[in-house]
Here is the input.
Amino acid sequence: MIRVRDITRVFGPVTAVDALSFEVARGEIFGIVGPDGAGKSTLLRLMSGILFAGKGSIVIDGVDVRDDPYRIKEKLAYMPQRFGLYEDLTVEENIYFFGRLFGVPGREIRNRLPRLYEFSRLGPFKDRLAGKLSGGMKQKLGLACCLVHKPAVILLDEPTNGVDPVSRREFWKILYDLLGEGVTIVVSTAYLDEAERCNRVALMHEGKFIRTGAPAEIKGSVTGALLEIKSDDVWKAETLMKKSGRFRAVIREGEALRVFVPDGRRGAAAIRAMLVKKGLAVRSIGVKAPSLENCFMEIIAEGGAS
Here is the structure.
């Protein structure tokens, strides 16, 4: 469905997207994960045809984005981080407006409204001004406006950023419903727990994909055991472990530290001995199942090599 080959985009001295190549299958949710400045938004803009690459090609459903940018608009929908809703229009007026922009006849938009309201649950609010909606409801309205022309591909740039947890779950339920209808979805996110819901994930850092695969495959690619350490002074323990130079990444999560070690039993004994020697009491230390976020931090720390 989507084939990207050697895409590069440079802004002055900064290479925002660096010789990326990947493919996305039809009916797949493909997640792009990375910190701010990794190049996620630039990549999605390139895929949507808003920006053009300095080199490389992007083909979506047989259409080259650069060679035929107008035809590609019929096949995809792009939802940026801040979707351009008209806040002085109602929910329904916004849907009609964007439908007409995509060339959908008014009668056809009217026929599609029940389905759009069904998945977004915006029916009871169809006469409310968009400016009066909550953040989560605005995101749902933005998605409804993107879907009014029935695209085969949806590009979503951090669609749940700043949205409450309940609305995030509802939004992802909508995405799974669309997936069941054969829609292909590419979504960028800074939430690693959301990335675990994707069929495949690309970890992006400094314009490159440093690891790509199913979430379970990425977690399985990180060797060693993840230890969780709790002490009477997490801040001092973190400082000591970082200064020791023995660990690539020491991750603090609340009152606990997490770190990858080659061997769980030996690593736990060595860390306990080091902290106790420095006068810190260790409340607990043990092996934990790593999250995708833990693995991402470790992959970056080790240089991102696959």
User: Anything to note?
Assistant: The chain has two domains: 2-218, 223-289. Residues 223-289 form a domain with the Alpha-Beta Plaits fold (CATH 3.30.70.270). The first helix runs from residue 40 to 48. The first strand starts at residue 2 and ends at 11.
